[in-house]
């Protein structure tokens, strides 16, 4: 579904990605783990078109992706950015409506909105509230709901659990699984490697702009080097 | 008391036209984070377009408004394409935008001086001379027209921004451009709309200004006071621009009425400087940095 080949991205002199290749197939949850500054957000931003790669190829369903995010939304890329970036000056309802900005299928929009409200009952209760007054966790739910309203097939998620209390982290991962059940494909960037590897099918390990390891999530989770670097000393339950 | 009410009415009338001009500054600032100093020149061109629509083309005054609004909307959009789009494509910092805006403004003003000439022009009489009397309060017909036309335009703008999909998209882009493009909102489209609206309102404001006073190439410099209003209310905020403009209009007429006309501009700039020192983000401003 998504194929990234030999992707290079630089910020001025800083080479953030140095030849990254990944594949995502329909119906998968793929996770990318890596330390701070490894280039995870850069990769997602390059896929959705926010950043222009200096080299490399990104194809989605066989066709190259555009260098303009708003066009990629139309093609089915749906990016929940790092830091949520909800429209704090608008209501929750308006935020969700903007997710459906490009869509004209009124009936489907209405049923998708119902679906989002089912996934996030807290958001439904607060639909008339100004988004800036939501708690961090609620804003994360809203950012996910808003992205789902674009009805994209591939959901890019950048650290959805960042800054959330453990109980909410659990909820967020629960919801990611439900989003998968809606028929979406998920590319998940996480620093919480423990949780990410538990729900993912496959994983890529990104270090300083290079993919250093890839494989089934369970294998990655049991790899001693990975465990030492990303999973702490804690043992990984399940797989 | 009657004199005070009279000043109040005059102040509202001046304030409403400042508001019409100020929202153009604010709209552009809210999306692009720079003060479009070429806006004043577009207002001036609007005054000339209205003037020539009536004198050369013989259009009735209401058609002159529409012609001027369409003309300045087009001019503003073309200006954005020629002057600012190349900077956006290169991700230039706001300083380059401001310098470019000032350059464009100087160019337009001098182009008008060189081609049309510096001599002020009088609009043909549109409204009857005598004021309308409400008890002891006299209301100039042009002042009334300024207030009514400005109020209609501003109400339409607020409805557009708050209740339409495109209006919401403009607000979203103003809050966070990156997030808005991830919703499929085309930033170029939003910028196009913002310049078209700001330009159209500038044209209407220019015609009103020209009808009240005269049409001359330096109108743009004078409309800088609407920029003060926008800063005072909080650049980037529409309600802020409206509030700032009304306050400025009232302060100006009260100062003229009770102190002296000579203090009017002094006080206006004093307000600007005080505001920039005490509360740089204005009454309802978007953010406090880089207000230039
Ligand atoms: N706008 C920028 N300008 C310059 N350098 C940047 C910029 N954004 C990121 N970088 C650099 O690029 C590298 C990769 O950053 P990126 O944000 O992709 O990391 P990340 O893996 O998402 O990290 P984190 O887990 O902290 O979010 C880092 O060295 C970072 O400092
Ligand atoms: Mg990141």
Based on the model shown, name its key terms.
heterodimer, A: 239 residues, alpha/beta, Rossmann fold, 6-stranded mixed sheet, 4-stranded antiparallel sheet, 10 helices, 10 strands, 26% strand, disordered C terminus, B: 292 residues, mainly alpha, two-stranded antiparallel sheet, 12 helices, 2 strands, 2% strand, binds adenosine-5'-triphosphate, binds magnesium ion
Brief summary:
The complex is a heterodimer of chains A (239) and B (292). Helices cover 38% and strands 26% of the residues of chain A.
How would you name the oligomeric state of the polypeptide chains in this document?
heterodimer
Overall tally of structural domains of chain A: 2
Named CATH topology of the largest domain in chain A: Rossmann fold
* Secondary structure tally: strands of chain A: 10
Bound molecules: adenosine-5'-triphosphate, magnesium ion
Shape of chain A: globular
Shape of chain B: globular
Name the chain pair whose interface involves the most residues: A-B, 26 and 18 residues
Write the H/E string of chain B, N to C.
Answer: HHHHEEHHHHHHHH
How many DSSP E strands of chain B?
Answer: 2
Q: What is the CATH architecture descriptor of the largest domain in chain A?
A: 3-Layer(aba) Sandwich
In this structure, how is the largest beta sheet of chain B organized?
2 strands, antiparallel
General description of the model:
The complex is a heterodimer of chains A (239) and B (292). Chain A has 239 residues and is an alpha/beta fold. Chain A has 2 domains: 1-76 and 154-160 and 185-239, Rossmann fold (3-Layer(aba) Sandwich), CATH 3.40.50; 79-151, no CATH class. Chain A is built from 10 helices and 10 strands. Chain A has helices at 40-48, 69-75, 92-99, 106-119, 121-125, 136-148, 166-181, 193-199, 217-222, 224-230; strands spanning 2-11, 14-24, 29-33, 55-60, 63-64, 77-80, 154-158, 185-190, 202-207, 210-216. In chain A, the strands form 2 sheets. In chain A, strands 6-7-8-3-9-10 form a 6-stranded mixed β-sheet, sandwiched between helices. A 4-stranded antiparallel β-sheet of chain A has the order 2-1-4-5, with helices on one face. In chain A, helix 3 packs parallel to helix 6 (136-148). The radius of gyration of chain A is 17 Å and the shape is globular. Chain A starts with a strand and ends in a 9-residue tail after the last helix. Residues 235-239 of chain A have low confidence and may be disordered. Chain B is mostly helical and 292 residues long. Chain B has one domain. Chain B is 74% helix and 2% strand. Chain B has 12 helices and 2 strands; from the N terminus they run H-H-H-H-E-E-H-H-H-H-H-H-H-H. Chain B has helices at 2-32, 39-55, 61-89, 94-115, 141-163, 165-175, 177-182, 187-212, 219-222, 224-233, 238-258, 264-278; strands spanning 132-134, 137-139. In chain B, strands 1-2 form a two-stranded antiparallel sheet. Chain B is globular and about 60 Å long. Residues 288-292 of chain B have low confidence and may be disordered. The chains are: A alpha/beta (239), B mainly alpha (292). At the A-B interface, helix 2 and helix 3 of A face helix 6 and helix 7 of B. Bound molecules: adenosine-5'-triphosphate (ATP) and magnesium ion (MG). The site of magnesium ion (MG) has 4 residues of chain A, from helix 1.
């Amino acid at each position: 579904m998504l194929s990234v080949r030999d992707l290079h991205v630089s910020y001025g002199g800083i080479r953030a990605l140095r030849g990254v290749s990944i594949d995502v197939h329909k119906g998968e949850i793929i996770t990318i783990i890596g330390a701070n500054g490894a280039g995870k957000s850069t990769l997602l931003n390059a896929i959705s078109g926010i950043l222009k790669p200096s080299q490399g190829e990104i194809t989605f369903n066989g066709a190259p992706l555009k260098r303009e995010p708003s066009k990629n939304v139309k093609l089915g890329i749906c990016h929940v950015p790092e830091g949520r970036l909800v429209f704090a000056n608008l209501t929750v309802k308006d935020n969700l409506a903007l997710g459906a900005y490009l869509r004209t299928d009124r009936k489907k929009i209405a049923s998708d909105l119902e679906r989002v409200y089912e996934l996030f009952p807290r958001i439904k209760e607060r639909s008339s509230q100004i988004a800036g007054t939501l708690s961090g966790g609620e804003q994360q739910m809203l950012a996910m709901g808003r992205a789902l309203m674009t009805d994209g097939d591939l959901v890019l998620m950048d650290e959805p659990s960042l800054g959330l209390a453990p109980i909410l982290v659990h909820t967020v991962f629960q919801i990611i699984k439900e989003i998968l059940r809606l028929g979406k494909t998920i590319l998940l960037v996480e620093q919480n490697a423990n949780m990410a590897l538990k729900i993912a099918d496959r994983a890529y390990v990104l270090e300083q702009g290079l993919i250093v390891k890839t494989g089934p999530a369970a294998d990655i989770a049991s790899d001693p080097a990975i465990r030492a670097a990303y999973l702490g000393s804690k043992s990984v339950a399940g797989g | 008391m009657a004199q005070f009410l009279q000043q109040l009415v005059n102040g509202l009338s001046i304030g409403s036209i400042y508001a019409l001009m100020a929202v153009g500054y604010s709209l552009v600032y809210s999306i692009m984070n720079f003060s479009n100093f070429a806006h004043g020149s577009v207002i001036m061109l609007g005054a000339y377009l209205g003037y020539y629509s009536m004198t050369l083309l013989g259009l009735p005054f209401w058609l002159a408004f529409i012609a001027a609004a369409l003309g300045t909307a087009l001019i503003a959009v073309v200006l954005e394409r020629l002057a600012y789009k190349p900077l956006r494509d290169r991700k230039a910092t706001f300083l380059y935008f401001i310098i470019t805006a000032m350059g464009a403004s100087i160019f337009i003003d001098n182009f008008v001086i060189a081609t049309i000439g510096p001599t002020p022009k009088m609009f043909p009489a549109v409204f009857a001379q005598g004021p309308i009397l409400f008890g002891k309060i006299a209301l100039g017909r042009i002042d009334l027209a300024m207030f009514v036309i400005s109020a209609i335009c501003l109400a339409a703008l607020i409805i557009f921004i708050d209740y339409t999909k495109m209006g919401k998209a403009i607000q979203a882009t103003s809050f966070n451009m990156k997030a808005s493009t991830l919703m499929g909102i085309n930033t170029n489209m939003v910028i196009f709309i913002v310049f078209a609206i700001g330009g159209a309102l500038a044209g209407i404001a220019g015609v009103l200004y020209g009808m009240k006073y005269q049409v001359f190439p330096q109108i743009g410099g004078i409309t800088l006071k609407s920029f003060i209003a926008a800063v005072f209310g909080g650049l980037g905020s529409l309600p802020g621009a409206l509030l700032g403009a009304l306050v400025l209009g009232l302060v100006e007429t009260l100062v003229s009425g009770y102190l002296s006309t000579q203090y009017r501009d002094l006080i206006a700039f004093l307000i600007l400087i005080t505001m920039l020192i005490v509360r740089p983000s204005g009454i309802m401003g978007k953010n406090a940095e880089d207000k230039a």
